[in-house]
Specification:
Protein name: NAD-dependent DNA ligase adenylation domain-containing protein
Organism: Klebsiella pneumoniae
Strand content: 15-25%
Order of helices and strands: HEHEEEHEH
GO biological process, one term: DNA repair
Low-confidence stretches: none
Strand order of the largest sheet: 3-2-5
GO molecular function: DNA ligase (NAD+) activity
Mean pLDDT: 81
Pfam families: DNA_ligase_aden
Oligomer: single chain
Distance between the termini: 15 Å
């Protein structure tokens, strides 16, 4: 999530819950002290179905999954153990979330095999039935 997107989300939150959130200029900057081992960049969106078909042509190693809106995170595993969880921040540096990430039951604390020494980037999200994003088509 970019800082601009974060500000838009905060604006939407303020509409739903007036007086319950800080103003945009009270939001912390989108960086931190933890350095990403690999830059955490966003994905480039394709405009239409034809663009997707052209992009997919001659690719056989695709993994397609539903779009999930959460918070971007980098997970670092060394010798099979989760050693770092970093917020996306500005893509080069983010907040150190390791202690909190270890408290998430669904998050793997141990990896084996090929993933024992790996850097994974993805989204942390909370699954809830009837969530407002689901109702709005998100």
């Amino acid at each position: 999530m970019t800082f601009t997107t974060s500000s838009l989300c905060a604006a939407q939150w303020r509409q739903c819950f007036p007086g319950a959130t800080p103003e945009d200029d009270d939001l912390p900057p989108p960086t931190g002290d933890a350095r990403h081992p690999v830059a955490h960049t966003g994905v480039r969106k394709l405009a239409d179905e034809d663009s997707v078909a052209r992009w997919m042509k001659n690719k056989s190693d695709l993994w397609i999954q539903p779009k999930v809106d959460g918070v971007a995170v980098t997970l670092v595993y060394r010798q099979g153990r989760l050693v770092q969880a970093i917020s996306r921040g500005d893509g080069l540096r983010g907040e150190a979330w390791t202690a909190r990430a270890r408290q998430i039951p669904a998050l793997a604390k141990v990896m084996t095999g090929e993933l024992a020494d790996s850097v994974l980037q993805g989204e942390l999200f909370l699954r809830r039935d009837g969530h407002v994003q689901q109702q709005a088509g998100g």
